[in-house]
Amino acid sequence: MSLIANLRDTVGASNVLTEGDLTAWEQDWRRRWRGKALAVVRPGSTAEVAAVVRACAAHGTAIVPQGGNTGLVGGGVPDGSGTQVLLSLQRMNRVRAVDAANLTITAEAGCVLQAVQQAARDQGLWFPLSLAAEGSCTLGGNLATNAGGTQVLRFGNARNLCLGLEVVTPQGEVWDGLTGLRKDNTGYDLRDLYVGSEGTLGVITGATMTLHPQPAAVTTAMAACASVADCVALLNLARARLGPTLTGFEMMGAFALELVARHFPALPRPLPGAAWTVLLEQSALDPEATARERFEALLGEALEAGAITDASVAGSLAQSHAMWHVRESIPLAQSEEGLNIKHDIALPVSAIPEFVASTDAALARHVPGVRLVNFGHLGDGNLHYNVQAPAGVDAACFLAEEEDAVNRIVYDAVCARGGSISAEHGVGVLKVDELVARKPAVALGLMGRIKAALDPQRVMNPGRVLAG
Ligand code: FAD
Ligand code: ZN
Hints:
globular; binds flavin-adenine dinucleotide; alpha+beta; 4 domains; binds zinc ion; Alpha-Beta Plaits; 18 strands; Uridine Diphospho-n-acetylenolpyruvylglucosamine Reductase, domain 2
């Protein structure tokens, strides 16, 4: 039987798409990569995923797993060969169980992140993983990329919230590792191997995640800083004064906010004129009035110390949402402005002020007029340090001519300071060569041997993360 006929038998003909407009699956969110799938296959259960993988493995056909297709490094769309099966998890979108007493939720991989958050909220609990793509990204995609987002400062990334996984191996076996245990030292941690593996070692079909009590009060504020060093001073003061109630600390450069104002003029313009704007969030178990007092005392102290020049505390939930909306609109505003060179980098927080000053200067020397969209999760030492063409220069030409040189300047500076070239978005196809160039050879060798041991046929997302 042909592979396509076999797949139709397995998941039903209506869930094997081979013609018509498949752009939604074949093109990535940034519109940087556009491939051609042999078929888009949409299984509805773990057993169907396993059967699809077995059929593809029998034909030696490569599989590209995909969740919400919001990934930013090109790892979830097929290549242009027309030979890869796009395995969409979107139909596997059920929450299987919430165990309120154990503070856990078990959901299928295709569950949209927002739906997982809502299922927790329905039980009076909180699933703190949160990112701007949460209305479309999926739990499986979050785990496959070890997503970060805006609450990492307090709760860690997707890995830190994951207790157990269900995975279909490249041979089509099902590993049921769905456990809600906080302690389980029974050998190698397979869960940690799969988290962050970007679809190269198997298909995640379900996960058990940690929940937290819902905070009584969530308060948000924005502060204006004159320099990155002042943002770092504010971060350290906020950590000292707010302790574990500090759940968000986002930094935004003036040009990033200018793009938001240009493309979304209806959104409020917080603290106009600030060189750097910080969004702080506090999630407290004590009453709102107490949390607000603590916030105001912190900002007063920061003002007196000269770390900030102005601040505004959200007076209502609507104002708080508006502040977050501005922050979360930056990636969209950037994409409206045109293609850009993205860098999702991590550095020790202490190295960030000097890194930004010297790298901004090096880029301006290399491309006079270059525009930097610098924003990110300063509390985690994670910047989205993106480089946009000078005003009036065609974005596609800029990318074609300057991407390699710009990457070299930025990544050399990152590596010289002990940083990482991928903080939270992953490697995908975008950073495969960079990884080869910059990861220690011993580490690359170990990764290659893990891949060869688990997926000797190289059917799972070949060419992603690891070359070849
Ligand atoms: P996809 O894009 O579908 O896939 C991503 C990768 O995971 C691919 O390699 C794919 O093959 C693999 N994969 C997907 N599902 C599975 C599965 N079930 N089993 C095995 N492999 C799988 N990321 C952050 O970390 N922090 C942010 O703050 C953040 N903000 C973002 C904001 C916007 C506006 C956008 C568009 C993206 C943002 N991202 C962010 C990136 C992206 O949303 C996350 O990486 C997200 O976790 C991807 O989920 P997805 O379901 O869309 O995965
Ligand atoms: Zn981010």
